[in-house]
Amino acid sequence: PADSSNDIAEAARYLVGVGRADCTGPVAQVPLMGYANPDQVGGGLLSRLYSRAFIVADAEDSKRVVFVSIDIGMVSQRVRLEVLKQLQSKYGELYRQDNVILSGTHTHSGPGGYFQYTLFWITSKGLIRPALSSIVNGIVKSIDIAHENMKRGRLFINRGTVENSQINRSPFSYLENPESERSRYSSNTDKEMVVLKMVDEDGYELGVISWFAVHPVSMNNSNHLVNSDNVGYASYLFEQEKNKGMLPGEGSFVAAFASSNLGDVSPNTRGPFCTNTGESCDNPQSTCPVGGAAMCMAKGPGNDMFESTRIIGQNIYLKAKELYEKASQEVTGPLSSAHQWVNMSNVSVELNATHTVKTCKPALGHSFAAGTIDGVGAFNFTQGSVEGDPFWDQIRDQLLGEPSNETKACHKPKPILFSTGEMTWPHPWHPDIVDVQIAAIGSLAILAVPGEFTTMSGRRLREAVKSEFDSHGTPGMNVVIAGLCNVYTHYITTYEEYQVQRYEAASTIYGPHTLSAYIQLYRGLAKAIALNATQDLPRGPEPPLFNVTSMTLLPSLSAESAPAGKTFGDVLEEVRPEYQEREVAEVTFVGANPRTSAENATEHNFLMVERYSNISSSWRAVLNDASWDTRFYWTKGTRGQSNVTIEWHIPAGTEPGVYRLRYFGHYKKKVSLFRTITVPFEGSSSAFQITAP
């Protein structure tokens, strides 16, 4: 038997630090990132977005691993490069491209505009500096906080099954995988959650990371309120539970619900229905008899998207909490990290001794424009299109040029809609240089993947990496996939799924052998870690940082005005004098553009729910704008005027008493012909009573 005293010494080898910082950015007028719907622009706030950072360091040597989960759609190359630049100027060689993993949760309700590749400019109105800056600064700040709070600690891992929280949204593609492979799995989604628990050496709780494969699309593409969706609600519940008595977003315990191989996994568990007729559209094309694919939408478990978000988020939270409380398997052993930059448009893959294939220049197929049952595309293409549509082909040829024969042949059977790898104006439309990265914390290997692996793709990747570790003397590794890391490259399907060209396959941008290429690359990283030879890995070609600081179609912020006889923060529609739990208290103010606040304060709080304390004869804050029970709406009017409505959805169990709703904003004021200044203001509703039920 192993010497147990040695294990204890080994365990105390870790220094652990956790940190959380706001990265919400502008909540108005900026298109939300995820559904590629240009009409879906921000119009307020349901919950704040956070960056959550976890640092594990070896107390004996200089090795460190940083894992950051961020409430954004995906990490872009631009975000990553700017973060690494800031970390280098602050910490020198301590935090680098190989030991820092940045992973997006994949919420579809966060601001866009933080990309340097042209394709993403189309739906997010260009590159929006305030959105990019708030993400970059929030990530760096969360790492700073974790760095400053390092203490001796211990890690525990646990895993379990989450029920009733996901369905496969491309089941017909999944069925293309070999029957012999499918029969090894009980489900067409990965139901397993992996939880990493962090405590200090006295057992004081520091934080938790959960990895689970589900799309955070409980909020659909009709939503205009910035929020972190189902996984963000799970983080909120866990942090509220552990940071008792603190306002949301405050307190030292950090709970991240990170993404995994969620490519074909939807939280909309009731499945796809035609919104016009109510009949099922669970067919290979996800199309309806009347209205086509645009009418086919998946339904969540709740009566509306807000309720569905809470139901799925609560399911995920409850399982994570249970696994966390019971976690007893300690993670021990050395830290290491391996990273390469790879030109993914030109990787040769040895399938076997006689057969070599290649990846392709990036391109998107027709079904990309169809969208999915979680959010239909802007054009009514049907999913599973293997014939080009001549009308769109012509538009594409005029706008964007015909794909080369080489690219067409390479991507077969994908009919190419956008040959992004052959478009370079004004900058390349898609990345060529992609990060592949693994960080190992003892027996836990985190595979940082640059996109959305489908269920079966993820299974193949994990299995390949595990067997690579096994065959080089490090058996029994816990291998988890962290999704949406470092640079966004859309989807990664299996070769078999690719053949039927539904949305996920049409969005597998480097062609049919993309997965095989990644498996080959991640095997190489795993081998280097197992043999302690990471320093010998070629760095690969460095990604470009385009010289574009801001390029946006957003309206500029100009002077604002209040209606005649009113001033900013005045109440236009008052609350009722009395409410009961489960009712909605609502007040409307003379408002100002929330973008002005975002550009003037890094962590601006737009609202407070306050309760009157008779003991101290003063108002006490009970909720802020990070609460999921409050909603902040901004409505633009004419002539520089706008309104703000604040809602408080009073939960069951709210303490009876006297309350009020407060609003905090900034407006732009013209002081001379060429100069405007920013003026802070606030407003408050009248006091109202909440009566016992």
Describe the structure.
The N terminus is likely disordered. It is built from 15 helices and 40 strands. The relative contact order is 0.13. Helices cover 23% and strands 30% of the residues. With 693 residues, it is an alpha+beta fold. Strand 38 and strand 39 form a beta hairpin. The chain is globular and about 80 Å long. Helix 2 crosses helix 4 and helix 7 crosses helix 8. The longest helix has 22 residues. The chain has two domains: 437 residues, no CATH class; 121 residues, Neutral/alkaline non-lysosomal ceramidase, C-terminal domain (Immunoglobulin-like). One of its GO terms (molecular function) is N-acylsphingosine amidohydrolase activity. This is Neutral ceramidase. Belongs to the neutral ceramidase family.
Layout of helices and strands:
Layout: H1 4-11, E1 14-22, E2 28-33, E3 41-45, E4 50-58, E5 64-70, H2 77-91, E6 100-104, E7 110-111, H3 119-124, E8 126-127, H4 129-148, E9 151-161, E10 167-168, H5 171-174, H6 179-182, E11 192-200, E12 205-211, H7 229-242, E13 254-258, E14 265-266, E15 271-274, E16 296-299, H8 305-326, E17 329-331, E18 335-343, E19 348-350, E20 356-358, E21 364-365, E22 371-372, E23 375-376, H9 390-400, H10 405-411, E24 416-418, E25 433-441, E26 444-448, E27 452-453, H11 455-471, E28 478-482, E29 491-492, H12 495-498, H13 503-506, H14 514-530, E30 551-552, E31 571-573, E32 578-580, E33 584-591, H15 594-598, E34 607-613, E35 618-624, E36 630-636, E37 642-649, E38 657-670, E39 676-684, E40 688-691
Parallel strand pairs: 5-6, 12-13, 26-28, 27-29, 32-40
Antiparallel strand pairs: 1-4, 1-9, 2-3, 2-7, 3-36, 4-5, 8-30, 9-11, 9-17, 10-14, 11-12, 15-16, 18-25, 19-20, 21-24, 22-23, 25-26, 31-33, 33-37, 34-35, 34-38, 36-37, 38-39, 38-40
Helix pairs in contact: 2-4, 7-8, 11-14
